[in-house]
Amino acid sequence: MACGQAAVLHKVVTVYSEMRTNTWRRWEEPIWIPWVGVLHSEEQPDKSRGVPKCSRSRREEFMVIGPSEPIVAVLGGDIMLPCRVSPAMDVQNMELRWFRSKFSEAVLIYQNQREQREEQLAQYRGRTSLVKDFLTQGEAAVRIHNVQAFDNGLYTCFFRMGIFYEEAGLELKVAGVGSAPQVHITGPEEDGVRVVCMALGWFPKPQVQWRALSGEKFLTFSETQAQDAEGLFTINATLVVRDPSSGNVTCSVLNPILGQEKAMAIFIPEPFFPRSSPWKLAFMVILTVLMLLLLGAVFYIMREHTAKLQEMQEWEKLHRDKKEDQRIKEEALKARDWRKSVYLASLKKAKLYADWRKEKFQTLTVSLDPESAHSILALSDDKTSVTFKDSCKGSEDGVYSVLGHEGITSGCCYWEVEIKNAERSEWALGVCRRDVERKGWYQESPEKGFWVVAMYDNIFGSLPANGEHIVPIPQRVGVFLDLKEGDVSFYNMTDGSHLFSFPLASASGTLLPYFRLRSGNVSLTICSGVGGPVQTPLPFNNLPCSSEEPGSLPGQGFSSGCGVDGDFPGAESPLLPCGPEAMSP
Question: So where does this one cross the membrane (predicted)?
Answer without folding.
Answer: 281-302
